[in-house]
Amino acid sequence: MYITQLEIDNFKSFARKTKIPFFEGFTVVSGPNGSGKSNIIDSILFVLALSGARGLRAEKLTDLINVNSGKNTAEVTITLSDGTTIRRRIKRTPAGYYSYNYLNNRLCKQGEVVEFLAKLGIKPEGYNVVMQGDITRIMEMSDGERRKIIDEIAGVAEFDHKREQAFSELEVVRERIEREEILLSELVARLDALQHEREQAVEYRRLQGELERLEQCRGAALVRQKEQEISTLHDLMLDHQATMSRIAGEAEALGTSLEAARGRQRAAEEEINQKSGPEYLELVGRLEEARGGIKVGEKTIERLNADRNENLEAVQRVYMDNRRAEARVEECAAQIRTLSIDRANLAMELSTQHERLKTVEARITSESKEVEGIKDQLFARMQDLEGRKELRAKILHEQDILIEKSRMRTSERERLDARIHQIVEELENKQAQVTDYSSCMADCEVEKRRIERELSEAESTLFARRSALDRLKKEIRENEQSLMRLEAQQQAQGDAGGRAMDAVLGMEGVHGTVAQLGRAPQEYATALDVAAMGRLRWVVVDTDAVASDAIRYLKENRLGRVTFLPLNKLRPLILSPLEADPGVVGYAVDLLEFDPAFDRAFRVVFGATVVVDTLERARRMMGRYKMVTLDGDFVEKSGAMTGGSQGKKVRGFGVAVDDEIMRVRATLAGLEAEAGEIEASIGRLAVAAEAKRAERSAVDEQVARYRMLVEEFRKRTEVLAGERQTLEATLEEMLEGAKTGGEELARLEVDLERTAGEIARLSVEVDDLKKKLDDTEIPALTEQYEGYRKSVEDIERRLRNKDADITDAKRERQHFANRAEELALERSRLEAKNQEIDAEIAAAKEQIEHQRRLIVVLEARQKEFSDELADLHAERDRILGEIRVLDQQALELSGAMERARMQIDALTEREHSLLAELGALREQAGDAETDLDLPAIDAGIAEAERALKKIGAVNMLAIEECDRVGARVEERTAKKEVLSRERTLLLDRIERYEKMKYDAFMTAFGAIDTNFREIFARLTDGSGRLVLENEEDPFAGGMTFAVQPRDKKVHLLSSLSGGEKSLTTLAFIFAIQQYMPAPFYALDEVDMFLDGNNVGRIAAMISDLTGNAQSIIVSLRKPMIERADRIVGVTIRADKSTYVTGVQNNG
Prior knowledge:
Blueprint: E1 3-9, E2 18-21, E3 26-30, H1 37-47, E4 73-80, E5 85-93, E6 96-103, E7 106-108, H2 110-119, E8 129-130, H3 132-140, H4 143-154, H5 156-230, H6 234-275, H7 278-367, H8 372-493, H9 499-505, E9 510-513, H10 514-517, H11 525-532, E10 539-541, H12 544-557, E11 564-566, E12 584-587, H13 599-606, E13 610-612, H14 615-620, E14 627-629, E15 634-635, E16 641-642, H15 656-772, H16 778-925, H17 934-951, H18 957-1020, E17 1023-1028, E18 1039-1044, E19 1051-1052, H19 1058-1075, E20 1080-1084, H20 1092-1105, E21 1110-1114, H21 1118-1123, E22 1126-1132, E23 1138-1145
């Protein structure tokens, strides 16, 4: 087995992946200092896990990763000659590092690799890999540290571990022995104290046995008495059974009648439910809907009348406006006539002035022949001036017309704007109202659904409450019947002793039965009833004389037999303390509540009976006490066991009938209170349902009113929207006309200004021409002419004004005529609207009348339903009365039957009680037979009790406790002896481990010493040996070397030179390697402190050793290189990473 290949990747100076082949024999790795030769040996140590980080010349494992490559991992793989591969990889992380080991490419733990190598002989303590510092470290070791090398080789640590483990076990055994001795001393002291208590308990047990024997004898004497009592009960039972047969026949006939009556009741209730079910509720709903419809119609008529009145007022207003418009038209017509007359007068006056003007013009013509040219110019200029003035008048007239039109358009536009604004406001108002009313209508619909849901829930709840009330009344009747039966049972049961008990309980000095005088807690009632057995009906009396008188009275009247407990003669048992057991409740007599005056009687009844929790506990304690469990199982001291299920509750301290009566009465009171609450809630629900119906009707009216208003406002909104559209179109036309009029008015202004300029120019020219004509008559005529002309102009102006006034009057007349037509149309529309309203009012009245007729029909139907329901309720009440009478009769029969049955049950129970007493007495007597009478037996019992009382309180557990403590003493003694033997064995084992440790050490030391002597002699031609400081106890001292080089004295290691120390240490390492042979060895520059001669010797020895193992040596020494079989060259790259140059064979 040897290394065939070493693959190194990013490990220390090997920044690049490098594969190094190895072969058998002697291989030397050589290269310059700092080239990374030793890192090859480090990689072998790393991959084989033979050393930690410090052994690999690093502070931590992550320092082994090359720092120049930039990678975070380093990996080394070694391949062995049998094909095995071992790989180790480390990875640097921000938090630390991860280390992975692989064996044959399988991820494994580092321990698996170490275990695998150990099988091949490769161990850390075997020195098969020797680093540079190992030689110096061994040389500088103390003698004790050097001896520990042999300890590791010999496996001394294993023996030390086993010895320490044995010492730990020895300490545990020692502590246990001490604890056993303490417990043993305590048990012995306890045993001495229990001996006396045991003797008292044995005597107490003997006296108790005697007392039990006397009790058996007393039971045998009482058996005779009880057998005579049983025979007197059968005759009474036969009489009561005959009475029960007669009552049963009557009850059967009454039950048939009662079942038939209940059948009729069910039929009536079903018909009532059917009549008051969905059909009736639908009828009520339709009636409410019709009433709501009438209210809605009345509200509609009221609203329509208001609208009609409002329209009538509007018609009156329109009529008055129309009258005013017509009057204004007449006024305008009269004004036009007046203006026309004035215009005609002005026209005549104008004609006269024109004639005058022509006359003056003729004279001027005749006077101006000599100045014809000037005159012509003057007249031409005057004619032009006149033409310009006429043009100016025409322009002014057109301007006045345009201004008047603009004024009228402005007035009309303002009227239209006001109307449009009014329409917009009304539209917004109407739309807001439509939105509000729609929202209100939606809210009302939601409210209506809520009311209908609540009404439905109220009606459902009301129906359920009525059903629940019926069920409660039925349950109340059943509980009343149960109460009557129980009271009858209680009365019949009375005191279960029958006539004999009735006769006895009324006597002077008689206190009552045991069952009457005691009261048991609920949790103990069953146990105490069973414990008392037939003694529950024993009668407690003051003295034996009272008992004797009562017995004599019963005999004389043949009323039966009763057992008496005279308080002055009773001798109860003295009860000893009970064992401390969690399952023991206590003595039965201590668990009962009673008057202390009757203490003796109850102690006689219960005796020494003990109450325990379970039958299992009673079985474990059998033979010590007479016991009864909480479930009523009975266990005699003799071993007899009585138990099982009970057909009915035993009448005893629990007082079953009284408890049941109280429970039924409480239940009945609760049911009646609940029925009262339900009746009150039914009343409240009925009122609430009626209120919800009224509320629903009101909401229906609101919804109808809102719907009508929404529809009306929507129609009005459509009308207003149409009117708005028409007005906006008209306004648009007017705006367009105003724009055109403005342009025309501006043009007229320009023309008027130009004409005025021309008139001023012509006036100047005329004045100039007139000055030229001042010497003739022409100027005067011209002045006269000018006067006439101005008069003509004035008349023409006035005429034009009249024409304008006439035009304005006509236009105003036309405006008011149009207004009158509009008002006539508005009046027609309002009158048509009133006709529609009248039609709607008539339709609403017809609908109201229809709803009223429907209400009459529905109310008649409702009355029919009510009458039918009243008849059905009366029929049901009559049947219920009949049922109550039958129930009362049935209860009376049931009471009589129950009394007879209870008498029979009482007699049967008395018989069972006597039989139980007889059985108990027979069990108490057992096989005992005696001729003694009761007084003699009671005297013997009293004597035994006095003896027991004299002994006093006794620890009955002392017998068993004494035996138990004695057994524990023996057990602890035996256990102590076992522990003592175990301590002896442990001491022997420790001594054996010490010897094995010494033998192993001496064996390894002897073999290594022998190897060292041979190797040292070969290397130095001298002698040497290993020396122990203390050969008797080698572990108490150290180990050193005693060597004698050739031609020198014997020296210890500390006295040698450096080279001699290195040679001696190498001989020691070689000796260890021979003792622990390995398949390969790796040595790192172990020859660095040796001279050439010694290097040759070391090389020769390594060469000889390679016959059995592979040797890999890192060295720079020539003798070592020359001796090697092959050489691996190593150098360094420029980037400071190691580079393997190759492998060269020697020779």
